[in-house]
Amino acid sequence: AVKYGIHVTGAAGATGPVTLLDNNIFSASVFSDGASPLEGAGILIDGTSQDVQVVGGSIGGTQGSNTSGVIVESSNDNTTRANSIGVNVLPTVNVPTTTNRSTITIDAADWNVIGEDLHLGQTVTGTGITSGSEIIHIDPLNRQIVLSERMNVSGINTITFGAANRTVISNNFFGAEMRSGHVRMTNTTVSDNVLDGVVVGTTIPDAIWARIGAGIAFNSSNIPDPTVRSPSSNSIYSNGRYGIRFASGINSNTQSVSLGIPANITTVISVQGNYLGTDVNLTDGLQNSRSDYWWDNVDLGTGLPYGETPPPGSGFESLVTSKDPTGDNPAEDDGNGNISADLGPPSSETTPPSDDDGTVRLPPRL
Question: 236 vs 266, which has greater pLDDT?
Fold first, then answer.
């Protein structure tokens, strides 16, 4: 056991991406104290880190759970490149290739679609590209990639990027925690975690710009649209408590809302084009045990958490679907492109029980 499998900190990623490629990480959990005996993460991204990419791999496993699979709590903001849990499978693009050169400049329109999902170690093929070429450097400022091999034909040619493996976060106590900073999740499976699949924010309202579902599937007008689901969409299912839990410091979905601490801090939360309570094949029986969504915000009138009903005027209302306890096909949420099975067993609880408030007290050991 270790506290962190991989810890990325400082100003990492400021001049180009840091890629954590196809890692299998488990048993990142250490004992702390009686109130919260386990802490640790398979991957921790903090400091002012930006453009850190978790690509492929299996974070957590039955052979040894991480306390949290991935934690992102960077202080980067929405003027920087997002830290990314998963990257998309990319379309082909046309680029200029130059004999005996290894640097390719990508057109601005194409970069706007694929730039966040290019990663180190990604294979590149096509006319003019030498066999075995892969990306060894990315310059976001100039929209350039550097290949490991020199090109062998000059001209405008179509190139293909190798498909990134799906990122899997499973069998942890908590799956992915998006605590602060600019962070996105795409092409990721979050399943079979003991408690919550995804936790967004913290009790203290830290600034966060989170995109759960950052897909680049194309709509009927052939325009990239994050509300369009595809095999690269996130699937969040079979978690022991909630699929996505919003911490009490979160109060917005798709709009910037001042949190007042300090006055210029804003938060933007986007949940689009995901599969919740099921997988990309719409398989039945994979519901999150309680519900797909939960809001920790406390109703000042009753003193109780909002629970499965988001705060009025929060912007989250469209995420909620009607209960369907019979297990029929999931229903689509209005406008966001999410499929929500919403099949967790009905609960008479008005608040989470006192022994299930998120603190891990008796971790299972194999």
Answer: 236
Q: Please state, as a whole number, how many other Cβ atoms lie within 10 Å of the Cβ of residue 157.
A: 17
Q: Would you state the structure tokens that stand for residue 137, as one six-digit string?
A: 């450097």
DSSP string over 193-248: -SS-SEEES-SS---EEEEE-----B-TTS-B-TTS--TTS-EEE--SSEEEEE-T
Reply yes or no: is the peptide bond before residue 262 cis, omega within 30 of 0. yes
> Is there a contact between 120 and 135 (Cβ–Cβ < 8 Å)?
yes
Residue 223's contacts (CB-CB under 8 Å, 6 or more residues apart) are none
Q: Average pLDDT over the chain, rounded to whole? A: 85
- Contact indicator for 259, 272 with CB cutoff of 8 Å: no
- Name residues whose C-beta falls within 8 Å of residue 162's C-beta, 6 or more positions apart in sequence: 122, 123, 124, 125, 134
Gap between the Cα atoms of 59 and 175, Å rounded? 9
d(CA 225, CA 228): 6
DSSP-derived secondary structure letter, 36: S
CB-based contact 60:42 (threshold 8 Å): yes
Numbers of helices and strands, H then E, in the chain: 1, 30
The answer to whether 175 and 122 have CB atoms below 8 angstroms apart is: no
R_g of the chain, CA atoms, integer Å: 21
The separation between the first and the last C-alpha atoms of the chain, rounded to the nearest angstrom, is: 13
Tens digits of per-residue pLDDT, 270-285? 899 999 999 999 888 8
Question: Residue 21: which of 56, 59, 69, 61 has the closest Cα?
Answer: 56
